[in-house]
Amino acid sequence: MKTGEKALETVEIARLIVDLIADRKGEDIVLLDLRKVSVITDYFVIASASSDRQLNAITEHVRDELKRNHQTVPLHIEGRGEDGWVLMDYGDVIVHLFSPAARAYYDLEGLWREGNVLLRMQ
Length: 122
Fold this sequence. Notes:
The chain is an alpha+beta fold and 122 residues long. The protein has a single domain (4-121), classed as Beta Polymerase, domain 2 (2-Layer Sandwich). Helix content is 41%, strand content 29%. It contains 4 helices and 6 strands. The chain has a 6-stranded mixed sheet with strand order 3-4-5-2-1-6. A hairpin with a 4-residue loop joins strand 3 (76-80) and strand 4. It starts with a helix and ends with a strand. The relative contact order is 0.23.
């Protein structure tokens, strides 16, 4: 079980990721709290971008800023903007970046609808 301090640090990282995505004009950003429904991770950050270049720019911005300012690096990054989907695994926070078509197809919000939406930015 995680301590309150760890949970606070994790949600702060998730909220920082939301802000970093917004910095690069990510769209329809959702922060889902999955702690009560998943053993995989605590939070999902889900966002869309209108082009593969923008998906790549968001990915690089999140990765670089977390590393530079918080000494936090992803455990794994999967996909590329050209694929229409990028996953960034920060352990307790998983970031899903999608093209609009891929986001509609995978419908993570629908699959994880039992999670608690902490934040939605249009």
